[in-house]
Automatic annotation (TrEMBL):
It comes from Candidatus Entotheonella gemina. Residues 1-93 form the ABM domain. This is ABM domain-containing protein. Pfam families: ABM (PF03992). InterPro entries: ABM_dom, Dimeric_a/b-barrel.
Length: 97
C-alpha cells in the first residue's frame, strides 16, 4: 500500500470554506485503487493541515495524479486556497493495524 500525505498552509481564515469545497469536490468519488481519504486540521495552526490518502498501489496513485479529473477539476478547485506552502509525500506503508 502507498500513503500520500500532503501538508499545506491555507490563506488565513479560509479553512471552513476549503473544507466545504474539499468535501464537495472529492467525497464519494470512485477512484480506482483508493482505499481511504482523510482531511486533518492542525490543532496548533488553524490555517494548516494534512490531506492523507491510502492507495492499493503506487501505479493507482500515479494514475490518479496524472488523470484529467485531478489536473482539470481537483487542482484548479482546491489550489486557490493554498498560500503557496505545501509539500506532498508518497510513502510505502510498512505496518498498519
Amino acid at each position: 500500500m502507498i500513503m500520500r500525505i500532503t501538508w499545506g498552509k491555507l490563506y488565513a481564515g479560509t479553512w471552513d470554506e476549503f473544507e466545504r469545497v474539499y468535501k464537495e469536490t472529492l467525497a464519494g468519488k470512485e477512484i480506482p485503487g483508493l482505499k481511504g481519504r482523510w482531511l486533518a486540521r492542525d490543532v496548533k495552526d488553524p490555517d494548516g493541515g494534512f490531506a492523507v490518502s491510502l492507495w492499493e498501489s503506487a501505479e493507482d496513485m500515479q494514475a490518479y495524479e496524472q488523470s484529467d479529473a485531478y489536473r482539470d477539476m481537483y487542482l484548479p478547485t482546491l489550489s486557490p486556497f493554498f498560500s503557496g506552502e505545501y509539500t506532498t509525500y508518497r510513502c510505502e506503508v510498512k505496518y498498519s493495524q
